[in-house]
Amino acid sequence: MHLHGYQGLRADLVVNELGITKGAYYHYFSGKQELGYSIVDEFIAPEQLQFWGALNGYFGHPIEGIVERLKALRTELKNDYFMTGSELNNLIQEMSPLDEGFRARLQRILEGMRLAIQGAIERGQKSRLVKADANAEEIALFVMANLLGAFSLAKAFQDRKFFDRCIEQMIGYLRGFKGQ
């Protein structure tokens, strides 16, 4: 599904790839849609929400916590990941306009990401580490939009340097909100 998209997903290929019978496949999944939902619910959502949820337990400067999350993406993701794109971003682009079940699931992930980033900024404002006039929700949306855009650029150009350059610009932007 990561390589060919949800619409390119075929039960016979899943059965062959996993080395299971069609009976086993249909024992667990009524069809392709249920498999797709399960992949989002059991793999993509927990991974994304855990990754960004780490901000909730971060004890350093909240802006640097967000920066560390962005830098972690640069160091942890392999080059081939950028060639096929972010699973989350790919599904948002492919399935949000076509399937309400996908759209709702993907929106919940994005909302969790937004709340984690926004919460970090708000905690920083309360402790005067982040400028009081910073709009935490707008900053969180900016980070999310730029992150998803960075994945799209790297995939379109088949070159991770576009992702890395976007991340560097975001880091500079975020550090501009540090308080005195």
Task: Report on this structure.
The protein contains nine helices and no strands. The chain has one domain (40-175): Tetracycline Repressor, domain 2, CATH 1.10.357. It is mainly α and 180 residues long. Helix 4 (62-76) crosses helix 7.
Q: What integer is the average pLDDT?
A: 88
- Could you name the CATH homologous superfamily? Tetracycline Repressor, domain 2
Topology-level CATH name: Tetracycline Repressor, domain 2
Order of helices and strands: HHHHHHHHH
How does the SSE layout of this entry go?
Elements (H helix, E strand, L loop, with lengths): L10 H8 L3 H7 L3 H22 L8 H15 L2 H6 L2 H9 L4 H27 L9 H22 L3 H15 L5
Helix pairs in contact: 3-7, 4-7, 4-9, 6-7, 7-8, 8-9
